[in-house]
Structure formats: C-alpha cells, structure tokens
Amino acid sequence: MEPAVKETSQKEIKEVLNRHKEYFNKQCTKPIDFRIEQLKKLKQSIKNSEQDIFDALKKDLNKSEFESYLTEVGILYSEIDFTLKSVRKWAKPKKVKTALTHFGSKGYIIPEPFGTALIIAPWNYPVQLALSPLVGAIAAGNTAVIKPSELTPNVSKVIIHLVSTAFSSEYISVVEGGAETSQSLLKQEMDYIFFTGSVNVGKVVMEAASKRLIPVTLELGGKSPCIVHKDANIKLAAKRIVFGKFTNAGQTCIAPDYLFVHKEIKDELISSMKQVITEFYGHTPIAHDSYGKIVNSSHFKRLQGYLNNGRIIIGGDFDESSLKIAPTIMDDVDWKSPVMQEEIFGPIFPVLEYSDITDVIMSVNKRPKPLALYLFTQSGQVERSITGSISFGGGSINDTLMHIATPYLPFGGVGESGTGSYHGMSSFQTFSHYKSILKQTNAFDFTFKYPSAKHGLKIMRK
Ligand code: NAD
C-alpha cells in the first residue's frame, strides 16, 4: 500500500512559518560554523537513510540502486562536500574599489541570508531536487521549508525522517501535500521561493510571489533538442544519447526531448542506438529490473497517447500493470505532431532530420528557449554556431546530462525554461542577498555635495 500524502492545513503551515521566522530572528543560523555543522549533519543523515532512500526510490520510480546513487544520493554528497570546502570563502564580506568621488571611504559587500526559504520539489528526482537546493539555503544561512512531491509518497516519508532527525523543526521543516498545500505555502510571507517543476505551475508560483514581491528561482522544463551533426562520433553519440534519454525512463527535466539528426547519418545513428538499448536494457526492456517505470497512470496514459503520432522504429511496447513503456524511437513526425508540441517527459524519442545546420537554428529559435541542448559534432565551427545562435539554459557538447553533475557549472533555464540558477557557488549566491555598504571616513569632509557649496556643480562636472 502506498503511504498516501495528506494535505497540510493553512493553520499548521502558518505555525511552521512563525516558528521559522522566530528562529531566524535569533540570528543563530548566520555564524559560519553553525552552517558548516548543519551541512555535515545533512550529509550524515542522508548516509544513515541511504538504504531507505534506495528502497523508496525503487517503490516510487523503480530506480535501481546504481541509478539512485548516480543521479540522487551521489550528487548530493558531492554538492555538500564542494560547499563545505568553499562556504567560508563565499560567506566573507568582499571589499570593492572606491570611486574617486568617494575618496576616503571604503566599500564592501556582505552576503546575507534572505530568511526563510520555501523549496518546492517535483517527483522525478525527488530526493536530489528537494535536498540540493537545501544545501544552498543552509550554506547561505537561511531556515527552510521543503515541500516534496505528493507523487512520490515513499520518498516523501524518508525526506521527513532524515530532515527531522538532523534538524530542529524550527530550523528546517518538511510540509507534505499536493497542489493545495503548495498554494497555501505560496500565500505565506516567505523570504525566498525556490521552485522546481513544470512551466505551468512555474507561472502560478511566479504570480503568487509577485503579490508579495518575493524573489524566486524557477527551475522549469521544456523541449531540449539533441542535435547530431554528420561529423559526430556515431557510436559514442548513440551510447550517450540512449543514456540521457532513457535514464529514469525519460523522466528527466534535461533529457534530450527530440533528436535532430543530419540526414546522411540518420540510419547509422538509429541502428547504433538500437544496439545500445539492447546492451543497456536487454531485448525486453519493460521486463528489465533496472529500467524505470512511469510515475503514475495518468502520466502513463498521456505518454501512451503519443505512440500513434509517428512511425515507431524501435520499441513501442508497454505494460500498464507495471507502468512501463519501452525505450521508443519514432520517425515520420513533424513540428505539428502532438509529441512535438509539449515536453515529452518519458521514454519516447521523436526524430527529425536536417541537411543544413541553419535550419536547425531557425527551428529551435522559433520555439520557447530550451532548458538543455545537446550537440554532437567534431567541428568547432558548428559548435560555435549553435552555442552562439541559440539561447538555452545549459548543455553538453558530445554528451548528455553531464553538465548538471558538476558544481563548477551553474545550472538553470532561461525564458520559459526557468529563471535563476544553482549548484556550487551559484546555490550560495541564489540564497543570499548581497548587501552593499559604504563606510565613510570622518577624517575629512568634501563639502561640494552640500547645497551651500559655491563651486559644487563645477567640481562635479569636471
Ligand atoms: P509540477 O509542476 O506538476 O509539480 C511540482 C511541484 O509543484 C510539486 O511539489 C507539486 O505538488 C506542486 N504543484 C503542482 N500543482 C501546483 C499548483 N497548481 N500550484 C502550486 N503548486 C503545485 O511538476 P512535476 O510533474 O512534479 O515535475 C515535472 C516537471 O518538472 C517537468 O516539466 C520537468 O521538466 C520539470 N523539472 C525541472 C527541473 C529543473 O531542474 N529545471 C528538474 C526536474 C523537473
């Protein structure tokens, strides 16, 4: 039996927030030693719950332990370790230069926490996407409320456990529920909102935040193109694309959504991808133990609806009882096909072909800015032409997904795929307000700025 997630009442939510505000105002979350200690506690608590996390991910999404470590827990450990190494440096006030007009004074910038941050998470990487923003929130000195997804109820219970054993409830809390709870949270006086989820709900979040002028980060989705040029290393490309597309059964915000392949290499690439699918998931992927399931039956039905949008050249089989859809590659689709109208978020891969790279640029640029873009080519000129002419959140050249897994690269979308970024230092910056201070000297006083100054204007115009 699934442990159903219940909505949390407005009254409870208000109480939670009041506790956080009171706690924050005690100033105890700000000392850097406190933050470091909490990050260590978070890491230890994840470690203590590791097996429970793996079990919950298996139940909610049929993730294998290997995949759960690679894409959820392992990423959290490296994010925490990276932050622990650098947070002292990031949190220090920074001196800046003094303008000539301000001679004698000093300028510096203090990063300060916003207060209480609300983190709303989706279901597809339900551990990582709830806790990775928390690393930034803690590092920057905030208190935080996490709202996990109601669609991964087993994971939600583990998150409650690992957070409540590591932290006091006035410091970090978990509020369970679905859209109703999420909307109640959005009506509160939060100091920051960090949302990961769909474009449509992102708009709801931004609208709610605008009523109170609460700053937001929106990590959204969209259709991320995967472009394979004629000079690509086809065998490697096939492996890396199959990995990126079918990990977590395609339910990855930055999964390649559709393939844009040069027509001269289309057949060879598709036949290589077919071999790789068999190598990874066997001849019957829906029966393979490590192949992910679709999160629930409504998403399963939505994806099933796409299967007749084109000609299936690989896969196409499914099993409703286990909510599995085989890795599927689909030809004969165009931009008007329903599968090309919205983010697929599942293991269906439509193929478009091109003969001129400028057509690719024009087609992608006509549509909302993607969260990710992948390009397989050995030509620096093609690389520069794509990265220079298409706006997208971030991406990889000759690989997929991997740009998300390094703390040195800020991760986020642009336009419809999101606003703001995080990971590594960028997480710290996201959850910090940078307060500018000018410290004036008392040793002397420039009188030209005062209304009584006779020659003030003349001096200033010089
Ligand atoms: P979703 O937008 O349906 O839900 C996300 C969160 O918002 C959940 O916690 C949910 O309870 C809450 N929510 C749902 N409806 C709401 C409403 N009307 N008002 C307020 N809150 C509401 O997204 P999802 O289905 O959980 O996740 C899939 C989407 O998330 C995809 O579009 C994917 O691309 C995107 N995503 C983006 C990233 C990223 O880092 N950019 C990562 C993962 C997923």
Automatic annotation (TrEMBL):
- Recorded coiled-coil stretches: 32-59
| Highest taxon in the source lineage | Bacteria
| GO molecular function (one) | aldehyde dehydrogenase (NAD+) activity
Lineage of origin: Bacteria, Bacillati, Bacillota, Bacilli, Bacillales
| Keyword line | Coiled coil, Oxidoreductase
| Family named by the database record | Belongs to the aldehyde dehydrogenase family.
Task: List the InterPro entries.
Answer: Ald_DH/histidinol_DH (IPR016161), Ald_DH_C (IPR016163), Ald_DH_CS_CYS (IPR016160), Ald_DH_CS_GLU (IPR029510), Ald_DH_N (IPR016162), Aldehyde_DH_dom (IPR015590), Aldehyde_DH_NAD(P) (IPR012394)
Per the Swiss-Prot or TrEMBL record, the active site comprises: E219
> What name goes with this protein?
Aldehyde dehydrogenase
| Residue ranges annotated for the Aldehyde dehydrogenase domain, each copy included | 5-437
